[in-house]
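Shipment paperwork, digital attachment
Item: protein structure file
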Amino acid sequence: MGQFAAAVMRAFALGLWGAVLLQSSLSGRLDLLLSGVFHPLVALSGVALLLLAGLLLAELALRGRESPAPSRRQAIPKTWWLSAAVALLVLAIPPNPSFSTLAANRPAELGDETELSFVLPPAQRSLTDWVRLLRSQPDPSLYAGDPVRISGFVLPQPGEPPQLARLLVRCCLADATPVGLPVRWPAGRMPRADQWLAVEGTMAIEERNGQSRSVVVAQRITPIARPKRPLEP
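Attachment content:
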C-alpha cells in the first residue's frame, strides 16, 4: 500500500509540473521570463511530463493495489510532497518581475556589436534600434532634431534623471542585458520606476560629465500597459 501511494504521488507531481510548463507556454507567462525561441521546447517538455505521468498511472492501474508479498509501510518521500507544493504555488501565483530592479543588478554591456547593415528612418526606430545605432555611430550631431517614438520601462539612474529602457535576452532573465536611453523629462514630471511609457519627442545633444551625448527630449508621454512580450532578442 505504501509503495502504491508513493507511486501515485510521484505521478501526481510529474503531472503537476507538466501542467505548469504547458500552462505557462499557453498563457503567456513565459513571455516575462524566457526568450520566445524556447517556448515550443517548454511546451513539449510539459506534454512529455503529462504523458509520463499518465503512463505511470496506467501501469499502476494494470498492476492493481495488491503487493506480491507483505511489506512494511513505505512513507512517501518528502521531496515529492515539496515538489508538488511548489508546482501548485507556481500555478497559483503568476510571475511579476521588477524589470528596473533586475536591470539595476545586471551589466549594461552588449558585447561586440556588429556593424549595422540597415538603418530604419528615425520615427520607425524602436528603443533598442536607437541604442544599437548610437553605440555603432555615437556622434550626437548625426541625430540632433530627429523625431523619436519609443516605448519601455522607467529605469532609475543614480545622480541623473531616469532612463527609458528595455531588457534584451538571449535565453532568459538570467542573462538579461538592460539597454536605455537618457530622457529629458518635462519640468515637474518624474515617472516612477517600472512604469511603462510611450514617449514621443526629438533627439537632442546634452553635456554630461564633460562629454556630449544624445538625449531624448520628451514632448508627449503616454502611460501604457506592459507589453505581452516585454523581452527583446
